[in-house]
Specification:
There is one protein chain. It contains 13 helices and 15 strands. It is α/β, with parallel strands linked by helices. The longest helix has 18 residues, at about 90-110. The two termini are about 35 Å apart. It binds guanosine-5'-diphosphate (2 copies).
Length: about 525
């Protein structure tokens, strides 16, 4: 089947909206604030300093008001900052990368919110950042967070006046002043708060989360907003495996152990340096949706990190939680299982493949980092990965390199193809002919002295396509014949890579048909 061309140059979904960047040192509450503003709890907050996020974008919408984008840059930290100097090896390079990303966000933002922690008071680092921002020459608002009760408000604000920017006290955790903050942000936009929206209001499923359109930033007094991580907060659920098939929006999940190269692949496939890639295992630990446009389609990588570190940052090995990552596969149309070519096939990979196959998850395997594999070792490598798919040979196996770009061209077209195949519906005439062909090529073997009789074939479901043969005695169909039937149907119906079910059901009534 001919498949689509390689992805066209890409642009983020929020690219048509003016942006406000949230910057600040780690742990001041940017992520909590971001979630409040976009009214979804996709980002996850942490209690430890130095635990930073990938850059995230989301939309702030309120009925009757101008829609704009916010960018959460993760924590900005310099090497001098003690909290991160204690991190594991490699963290410095990681922090430098965040700083670069933050600068990029600031460069494209219309205005900047410097988020500070009212309880910590003014730190030298806040001053350093403020000086940095002053040079950027853009409107700046200092957002004093964690002002949870009004009694101490003035006291908490006092020292931040020294920064010389307008101040707004908020409590991200309680929602206090968050609406006022959104209004202040609108004031910073070019053209002011009332400039009409662009013509093309994006649909559901945008970037970091779908904001509801109510003029309200969530329950204002719900106690600890930071506790409800993972909750959907009333925002519309992500598009899931439903009957609706919207070919313009493809949701993909990345699955695989830390350091396999998932984030690098998201970067390479989306053509952007959005995710932070680091040699420290598990540095991409938050669940982030990353969207980009490719031709006339929107592609979203859901819960991009997929795997989240729960324990201390100093842990040397991150536990790979299969359960947590399998959850992301249910939010996606197609799952990309990323394996590290240098690690070979592990028991865990095998189990994962079997699990995905059993669950009828539409998936493909990307063997990454092939730039590191000497050419003469490739045949052995290919044989072992192929062996891993012994029981699900329909699963595509692609050898890629996020680093060199090798093999990446077919990845997105293949994902689309798998998804399209999940929705194949076969007409009655074709089903009848298919059954005839299946039976004439190979009769079902005699079992316990009787040859099973086939009455008819129907397609019970799509996604995955499910075919049911009505036969006189289903117990007489043995596995090898069932395998042959599945293979034949796959070939005839061109369902070559999607999961599929073939069932045999006893039906005595239909005898004689
Ligand atoms: P970030 O590193 O700047 O993104 O900070 P996070 O959003 O991850 O928040 C860091 C910590 O501060 C988390 O434990 C939050 O629960 C907490 N936090 C965030 N906002 C508030 C607030 O308004 N009040 C209080 N008391 N804690 C908050
Ligand atoms: P994740 O934890 O699965 O998201 O993995 P990352 O994308 O953070 O990558 C982990 C490490 O592998 C980083 O040091 C990357 O630079 C490196 N890496 C990723 N893809 C490739 C690749 O195709 N070739 C090589 N040589 N290194 C890669």
């Amino acid at each position: 089947m001919p498949i689509a061309q390689p992805p066209a140059p890409t642009a983020p979904v929020t690219s048509h909206l003016p942006k406000i960047a949230l910057v600040g040192r780690p742990n001041v509450g940017k992520s909590t604030l971001f979630n409040r503003l976009i009214r979804a709890n996709r980002a996850i907050t942490h209690d430890r300093p130095g635990v930073t996020r990938d850059r995230m974008e989301g939309q702030v919408r309120s009925r009757g008001k101008r829609t704009f984008a916010i960018v959460d840059t993760g924590g900005i930290t310099l090497d001098a900052h003690a909290a991160v100097a204690e991190g594991p090896e490699g963290i410095r390079g990681f922090e430098a990368e965040i700083l670069r990303q933050a600068e990029a966000a600031m460069a494209e933002a219309a205005g900047i919110c410097l988020v500070v922690d009212g309880r910590d008071g003014l730190t030298p680092f806040d001053e350093h950042l403020a000086a940095h921002l002053r040079r950027a020459g853009k409107p700046v608002l200092v957002v004093v967070n964690k002002v949870d009760g009004v009694e101490r408000e003035d006291e908490m604000l006092a020292e931040f006046h020294a920064l010389g920017f307008p101040l707004l006290p908020v409590s991200a955790a309680h929602g206090h002043n968050v609406r006022a903050l959104a209004d202040e942000m609108r004031d910073m936009l070019p053209g002011g708060p009332d400039e009409p929206d662009g013509p093309d209001e994006p649909e559901e499923g945008d970037e970091a989360g779908e904001a509801g359109d109510a003029d309200d930033f969530g329950p204002a007094q719900d106690g600890d907003g930071a506790e409800d991580e993972g909750a959907e907060s009333g925002a519309p659920a992500a598009e899931t495996k439903g009957p609706a098939y919207d070919p313009t929006h493809l949701r993909l999940a990345m699955l695989g152990r830390p350091n396999a190269g998932k984030s690098s692949l998201v970067n390479a496939l989306s053509g952007q340096q959005r995710m932070i890639v680091s040699d420290v295992a598990g540095t991409t630990r938050d669940s982030v949706d990353v969207s980009f446009e490719s031709g006339d389609r929107t592609i979203t990588f859901v819960d991009t990190a997929g795997v989240r570190r729960r324990s201390r940052i100093t842990d040397s090995v991150e536990r790979f939680s299969v359960n947590a990552s399998l959850k992301s596969t249910t939010k996606a149309h197609v799952t990309l299982l990323v394996l590290d070519a240098l690690q070979g096939v592990t028991q865990q990979d095998k189990r994962l493949v079997d699990l995905l196959d059993e669950r009828k998850t539409p998936f493909m395997v990307l063997v990454n980092k092939i730039d590191l594999v000497p050419r003469k070792l490739m045949p052995d490598l290919e044989a072992s990965f192929k062996g891993m798919l012994e029981f699900c040979p329909h699963v595509p196996l692609l050898y890629v390199s996020a680093k060199s770009g090798k093999g990446l061209g077919p990845v997105l077209p293949m994902a689309e193809r798998i998804r399209a195949e999940c929705h194949v519906r076969v007409g009655t005439g074709q089903l009848n002919r298919a059954m005839e062909e299946v039976l004439t090529r190979h009769q079902p073997p005699v079992v316990r002295r009787v040859r099973p009789k086939f009455f008819y074939l129907t397609q019970a479901e799509t996604n995955p396509p499910t075919f049911v043969f009505f036969v006189n005695d289903a117990d007489r169909i043995q596995t090898p014949y069932a395998r042959y039937v599945e293979k034949a149907l796959r070939r005839m119906f061109r369902i070559e890579h999607a999961p599929m079910r073939v069932r045999f059901r006893s039906s005595h009534k239909k005898k004689g048909e």
